[in-house]
Amino acid sequence: MEFKLEDFTLGPTEEKLDRCKKDDLILIANFFDVTVPLNAKKKELKELLCIELHERGLFGKPGPTEGVELGAVAGIPAPLKNLPPQPGPSAEELQLTLRIKEVELKKQQLEVEAMHLRVRALEIERGASVSASPPTPRSAPQSPSPQPALMCTTLAKECMVSLLQCNLVGKAQEAKFSGPYVVERKLSETDYVVLTPDRKKKSRVCHINMLKEYVGRERSGLSPAVSPIVNHRNPKRASCEEVAKIIVNRYPQTFADFTEKGERLGCGHYSLPRSIKSRVEHVNQDNTTHRLRQTKRTRNEEDCSPNSNATPPKIVRCLVDSYGCINWQPVELPERETPASLEEKKHIMLRIFNSEGPGAVERPDVDDIMCLTYISQRQLINSCPSLSVAEIQEQWPFLFTLKGLSNHFYKLTGIYISERLGQALITKGRRIINYFSSQKLKWNLGIRTLIQQIESEGVLTNNKVGTAAILLMMKYYKEDKDSLFVLAGETSTRMSLEAESNLPSTPRLIMLGQSSMTATCWMVSAEGRVIVELDKENTFADAMSAFFGSFYVLNLEYQESVCATLELIQRFVVRINPEEGTKCTSKVGTSRKTGTTVKRKVVHINPHVTTFLQRLTEFEWRTSN
Questions:
Q1: Roughly what angle, to the nearest 10 degrees, separates helices 417-437 and 402-413?
Q2: Residue 266's domain spans which residues?
């Protein structure tokens, strides 16, 4: 006779319990919330149920009638006679509860069957002809050779790697999967022997519900540059850069290099590769095998000499000339203009300059003509072979004034350099001074001495703030200030400087005064001659605008001896951040430690610049809290 849970709950008796099967007993236990072990035998289940139901007073009592509350059937004591009747669950609600219990149990049985089917399918894929062979009886001796149970990443051909669910600490309900472990052999359709070498019990028999397939990470999609960092204990820097690029592209707001204005610093992944490489070296610090590098190639002194790096004059322009520019070489002529009309305007400008001098640059018509003839100016500057600065100044004299350079720089890069430098040298200059003066004991003697000189000046004017900030950065980068500044007397003139002072060929900012901090007038020189003279009304920011703008307007490269400071001004102060290229392509430089000539690696961004910007940001974040 088929067992019905509803009939038993409405009239539970020991006779009905004796006729139940093991599955029926489990159903009854679930309904009455009786905790029983799943691996217990039928006799044990029956005894547990009898004891529990007797304690609840359900055996030996008639089933529910019209005057009996249905709640008593479920083990709830019936209400006392002298109390008013309490409303209990209706028969329809009780049947619905029974149905929910049956559906939940059926769901658990289907999940177990689905697990068995997946195991069978995986066994067939591995070539295990389980379906063709009869099931092995439990009492039969097991074969010593292991049989695979799941198809997954394996450590051996005949062994399966799986995760084991076990409770190490806490309650059984808090069990978590651990592993992976190797399945040694299969005992039955549901039981397997799992090797657990890292546990006290080296092997254990586990039910299939406690096992889960272990899936290893897919590495087939990695690029060739990323694979070495996964498979090698000491990957090269190129591999670290490839990984950093992937991380920055996926999480730019967290790992990319940004300026304080929210602009990406170059390509945005310069500091992260250094962090990854530092971590790799830290992990390998006690492992000399993985820290071995290739032997350094011996090189002769001629390899590092300046003459060996000498290159013939340019016959074509290269990327360094247009570095950071947005309108380096315009193609279209201005509206209603022809080459002949532009040439005529150039001659007009020459006549005005010869008659009125550099002061005529303030005339509105001169400003308009300089804007119209921008294409002619760029064609002359960008011509190959390149002309000297003197030849360019001879044809376009108004270009070598502060206003002419600033307007040309705006057309070239889209930046008003006088305004940006004027504001940034004050605000960011004070931040740099505060960064160094707040950590005096951290710096070397040269920086500490310079900080004392700056503090002895008292209240710093705007001119002194900018000068002090640049001098501190040059000390920080161990660069000689003579590579950027030339100090001359207050009464020096253009002709006396060109005649008496041996001006270098690379650009210099000439400071007229007793010291760099007290200078009140400035000039800019290049190729051994003064190219820009500034008035006494101009500020240090104006002088830096003319000096820094000349590198871009005249297609000049940063000198190697001061390239770090110039790149910091470019990226931090002026905020020109191209993703590729550099303004210093010299392959030979002077070592800051030994002073000898060494080979120099050309990179898109100077690592010393990014390191300083990162340290400055961290310092301001720490001190602001």
A1: 90
A2: 227-283
